[in-house]
Amino acid sequence: MDIVIGLALGLIAGVFSGMLGIGGGTITIPGMFLLLEVEQHTAQGVALGAMLLAALVGAFIHRRQKNMDLTVAMWIAPGAIVFSLLGAWAAGAIMAEWLTRGFAIVLLIIGCRMLLFNRGGQGVSTS
Hints:
The structure is a single chain. This protein is mainly alpha-helical and 127 residues long. It has one domain (2-113). 79% of the residues lie in helices and 0% in strands. The protein contains five helices and no strands. It has helices at 2-20, 25-35, 40-64, 70-93, 96-116.
C-alpha cells in the first residue's frame, strides 16, 4: 500500500509542480507525514531528493516553451544554493514537532495570501 501512496504522491506532486510551478514538497511532505507516517526531517530530505530531477525536467520544458527568464534564474540560483545549505543545517537542529508546525504555518500563510490577494489579472492569455 505504501508503494501505491508513494506513486500517487509523486504523480500529484509532478503534475502540480510542472503545471503550477509549486515545489513538489508542498504536496509530498504533508503526504508522507500524514499518509505514510514519515518523520518530518525524513520527509523533507526525501522530497528534496525526489524533486531534484523533476525540477530539472520542468525547467527544461518551461525554457523550451520560452516561459523562463534565464537571467533571473541565474540571479536567484546562487542565493538559493547557499541558503538551502543553511536551511538544511538549521532544519537538523530543530525538533521535528516544531519543524512540522513551522512548515504548516508557512503553507497556510502562502495559501491564504494567494487566495485572498488578487495580482491585478496579470495572467497569461491562452487565446
